[in-house]
Amino acid sequence: MPPAHAAAVRASVEPLRELILRFVVDGQPVEVPYAAGSLLEVLREHLRVTAPKDGCSPQGQCGCCTVLVDGQPRVACVTPARRVAGRDIRTVDGLESEVRESWASAFTNSGASQCGFCTPGIICRLEGLRRRDGEQVLGDPVVVGRALQAHLCRCTGWRTILEAAAAFGRGDLDGLRPLAVRDLTAAARRAEIEGGTPQKVGPDVALGRAGFADDMAPPGALVVVPDGRGGWAAGETLQQARVAAGKVPGRRTSVAGWPPIDLPDGDWARVLRTSWVEPAYLETDASWCEPGGEPASPLANGGAFGGKLDSIVTEVARDFADRLGRAVRVVLSREDVVRLGPKRPPMAAGLQPDGTGVVRVARTPGITEVIAQVAPKVRVEEVTIPGPPTSSRIRAAGWAELAVLLASFTDRPGHIVAPNGAEAEAIVRSDSTIAVSVRCGDPLDEVVLRSYCIGAAHMALSWVTSEQLAVDADGLVHDLTIRSFGVLRAVDTPAIEVHIESSDAEPINGSDAVFAAVAGAVWAYQGFPASWPTGRSLSA
């Protein structure tokens, strides 16, 4: 380029670098550089407004970063900051205090928030719907379900969110289980039993204030992200680190998923092959650490269904902080989680009615012992297959599949007794309603227990019918968008009824038993097809 031409280009670009964007966030005027990136980057990285969450980084598919722009819901991660110049931005924290507290109460009273990561965006979506169409529309589950199509919630199973919206719409915020008569300490204990890690319960959780690691990272921490080549890239900001890593947005592949393990030879009375599936927790793995300190846990307010128990981010944060002598923040993108995070081990099994048979399962530490807890007569063959890492600590991995297979030979295919002694039974009614009963000791708090059971039922229904992750013959994961995992949306999820059989026995986890029971009931309802996912809805 001729020197004169280059100088002219520089002269035209330099003024853009000096431009300032001005808009209002939660009632406060703000100024940011013109080239600040997406609205989500501006809010979280420049302004330290952490109510909007980053769950898909940025695919525009999970809804966790939804905010109100001039009163209309917008997904912040795919909204360029320059498009909101001069406009009014409201996160859940910027809603009128009475409205915000009412939404938080409705979600807490109905059990519509567990980890609390996705709910700030969902509340903004529902508040936008209310402002546009009025309170009465919140009682229509079809309309609310359609509004939620921009969102993903892995924990709750949607039904409690629909109940929270309806309660808010009719002004009956205490109509489900008023906070005044609940012991939130007992509720938190039940949540810990179900989720596997210490957990908070209360209105602040629904507002996204549960202490997520990436929300709590100190300002000025060096940001470290995977570089996609087995190493790590660093930057002074998340945007810089991702540019250094060469990150590109994930995509949904055209490659078909399939069960990766062949059935064992034999003439079996019942067979089952399962596919690669993604745990699909919404809060991506994150940690931070000061030099010489302890890294923040990625298990901020929930167990991620076992998917984060072996997360690499804590040790990476500690190592970089100690070596560099400064605070370090480690953040995985959605694509990183899919590639690096552990999966439920796929398997292929053949059984006889007497409980004998063979199960071939992806080689996974501890999986043989887990299977033996429920199917001691089965021979386990661990096989090495290319693919992402697997874990026996994913929700009910191994034992749920075998418990379902064994129950399929009985007249109660939805009846499961878990290894811990919890008992659950599920049936699918002719109208596709899923009815569940569960016995797991003292409920402690029926709202929390019911919420976990509904969430487990939703996960099991998705697992059997629609969830699959495309992994090619070389073990490369191709499905990198959160919508490609096959998790059922609110509009696709039937009514789920939960009956809790209370007792004075020691409280134990019950939602894992519900997970297996619903899987068994759905499989039986569809006629025991040989492979999961079946690719069929309940209504079909």
Fold and architecture overview:
This protein is an alpha+beta fold and 540 residues long. The chain folds into 4 domains: 3-93, Ubiquitin-like (UB roll), CATH 3.10.20.30; 95-211, DNA polymerase, domain 1 (Orthogonal Bundle); 212-248 and 285-332, no CATH class; 347-525, Aldehyde Oxidoreductase, domain 4. It has 16 helices and 17 strands. A 5-stranded mixed sheet has the order 2-1-5-3-4, sandwiched between helices. A 4-stranded mixed sheet has the order 7-6-10-9, with helices on both faces. Strand 16, helix 15 (446-465) and strand 17 form a beta-alpha-beta unit. Helix 3 crosses helix 6 and helix 13 (367-374) packs parallel to helix 14 (399-407). The longest helix has 20 residues, at 446-465. The N and C termini lie far apart (63 Å). Residues 5-14 have low confidence and may be disordered.
Write a compact overview of the structure shown.
With 540 residues, the protein is of the alpha+beta class. The protein has helices at 3-18, 39-46, 97-110, 119-133, 141-147, 159-169, 184-195, 203-206, 213-216, 238-245, 313-324, 334-340, 367-374, 399-407, 446-465, 511-525; strands spanning 20-25, 28-33, 66-69, 72-75, 88-90, 222-226, 232-235, 270-273, 286-289, 328-331, 347-351, 357-362, 378-383, 415-417, 423-428, 434-439, 496-500.
